[in-house]
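Pipeline run #58 for the internal structure catalog. This entry was flagged by the ingest filter as a single-chain record with no existing model, so it goes straight to prediction. Upstream metadata was stripped on purpose; only the residue string is passed forward. Reviewer on rotation: M.T. Logging verbosity set to normal.
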Amino acid sequence: MTQTEMQSGNIVPSSLTQIGITMKYTLLDYFRSRRFFILLAIALIIGFLLTALVGYYRPESFLSDSLSFYSSWWGGSTTFVIILGGIFFGGDSISGEFQNKTGYFGIPNPIRRSSIYIGKWLAAFIAASIIFGIFATITVGNGLYYFGVNIPIQFGQSMLYAWCYLAAVMGFTFFFSSLFKSASMSILITAILFLFVFSLIETIVSTLVNIEPWFVLTYGAGIIGNILQATYPQHVIHQPIGARARLTLTTYNAYVPEGLAIIGLYFVITAILGLLLFERKEFT
């Protein structure tokens, strides 16, 4: 071996190269693992059930027109698929490095923690986007069957908003994955927050306190379904309850720019905080 070859062999790969390598092998781990195929099966089951139910019962809410179809099919189910994608692929991405002791072998090498974090985030985002894309394909396939190529432009906008929401969910899950050294703890807390707590907080704050829940991520994600309405919902809706209307149910709907701002802030803040936590946490 020449001296030039020896010197080139000691060159530390650039940050982009490190990110690419981390992303590549993390993606391979996902494709070889059960979690990818479990989530794929869940997305396919949801799509199959919707296909069977709509085909058999022919509900008017789905088949009255093209926009109503995509609103009923996509608006209510896509956020659930996105949340599952964040939990499955992001919940233990960082905490697993501590719990499974894999970080002990990777961190001593001349590779930046930021490269590991970003590479793993990109791999998780790509894997979740594949599941997201498959579910979107099932949706469009059914829409083409019932309404032909009459795909409303609002569906394209909703897909874009949903993809942004996926990035925010992934940033949030990576934050909690960096916060805890237990993979099960980070997954459990993330699942509880997205499936129960956020919705509960949003309802309580809107109904009892009459304050717009602009600080809740799921509130901003409401634009995914609202954009598919024939008329975009009003920002504030007051609905009397009871015969004498002594109680009023208040519902808030985020404007599209407001919803995108909430989603974007959640992504930026949680992703940066998660990276800082991972940079500072010691392998003990």
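catalog note: The CA atoms of residues 113 and 279 lie 6 Å apart.
catalog note: The radius of gyration is 22 Å.
status: ready for reviewer M.T.
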